[in-house]
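Minutes, structural biology subgroup

Action item carried over from last meeting: produce the C-alpha cell record for Acyltransferase 3 domain-containing protein (Elizabethkingia miricola). EB confirmed the sequence was re-checked against the source entry. Recorded below for completeness.
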Amino acid sequence: MKRNISLDILKFILAFFVIGLHGRLFYDINPYLSFTFVSGLFRVAVPLFILITGFFFAEISNNKGFIKWCKRILFLYIFWNIIYLPLWYHKGMSPKIFTFIITNGFLHLWYISHMLVASFFVWFTRKLSIKKGLILAISLYLIGCFLQYLANYSKNNFITQYVSHLYIYRNFLFFCFPFFYLGYALNKGGFKFKNYIFYISIFLFIIEITINTFLSYYYSKDLNFDLLVSLIILCPLIFIKTKEILLISSTKYIALLSSGIYFIHILTFYFIDILISPTSSLLRILLCSILSLILASILIIINKYLKFKIL
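Output recorded by EB:
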C-alpha cells in the first residue's frame, strides 16, 4: 500500500531528539547551552509523537476497532516494561517503585500508559464538537503549563513539596490528552494555516526557551520543562507542514525504525555507561544513536516473525 512517509521521517528525526534529551546534550560543556536543547528544542518530540498517534487514531470508527487499538498499545507497554524490568530490579524493587512501574512505566515508557488513558478521554468525548474539544484540550494543557511553571519558580514550601512532582502536570490529563486530541482534531477538521503563523509560532518557541534559560541562570536552579506553552501552537503546525510534503513509498520501515530507536535507546545508554562510561555527552549520544539504530534494525527483522508485534 502506498503511503506518505513524510511523517515517518519526522518521527525518525524526533527519535534522535529523544536520545539527545535523555543524554542531556552539552551538559558537560555548558549547563545553559544544554538547557536550550534539553528543556527547549528537544521538547517538541513527545508531543509530536502523541499528536501523530492521535491523528491516525481518528480513523477508528467503532468500539471493536478502539478495543483492538487499546490491546495493541497495552501489549507494547507491558512487553517493553518487562524488557526493562531488570534495570528496575537493579535500582531496588520497593513497593513504591513497583507501584510506579505499573502506573507509569520505566522512564521513557511513561507516555504510552498516559496516552492510553488519554485515548479513552478522546474516544468518549468524540461526540463533542471539534471546537469544544479543542477548547477543553488547550485549557487543560495551559493548566498543566501553569502548574509546571509554578513548581519551577515558586518558593512556597507547599508548592515545592506537592506541585513540583513531575506527574502532577506531565500526565494523561494535562499533557497527553491535549496533544492526542489535537491530532484527532486535525484529522477530523482538516485545518489549514498561513505560513506566517508557523513562523510566529517558531519565534514564540525561541522566545520562551530564551526566557526560561535566563531564569534558570537567574534562579541558579537546574530547572526542567516538559510543557512549553508555545508547543500547543507549534506542534500542530509542524505536523501540518510536514504532512504537506509528499514522499510516497510502500514501506513502513522508517516508521518501525523510529519506534525501535525510541523503545531501545535507554537500554543502549545503560550498556554504554557500564562498558565505556564516556565523559563527553556528545560522544555518549553519538554512540547511543549508532547502536540504537543497529538494534532497531535487528528488532524490525525479529518483529516480522512475531504474531504479537513489538514495534
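Discussion: The chain has a mean pLDDT of 91.
Next step: EB to file the record with the rest of the batch.
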